[in-house]
Specification:
With 73 residues, the protein is an all-alpha fold. The protein folds into two domains: 33 residues; 39 residues, no CATH class. The protein contains four helices and no strands. The longest helix has 19 residues.
């Protein structure tokens, strides 16, 4: 790591736990930025799957079965 990063890390580690946690949340959220291209691709995939289901080209499975919650009593 660079000297700047080391200094920031040492400063952060000296913060009280609640402030460190808040800093971590801010840093992590800065990495999770929306990507319009990925959002567009997922929307296209969802539309494609809906169309396939409407045409009867895919078999649906109840959520309870997928999640292993079928009541076999």
């Amino acid at each position: 790591m660079s000297a700047t990063v080391d200094k920031i890390l040492n400063d952060a580690l000296s913060l009280p736990p609640a402030q460190r946690a808040a800093l971590v949340e801010e840093l992590l959220s800065s990495l999770d930025r929306p990507d319009p291209e990925i959002d567009k691709l997922w929307a296209q995939e969802a539309e494609s799957r809906i169309d396939m289901a409407d045409r009867g080209e895919m078999r649906s499975i109840p959520a309870s079965q997928v999640l292993g919650q079928d009541d076999q009593r």
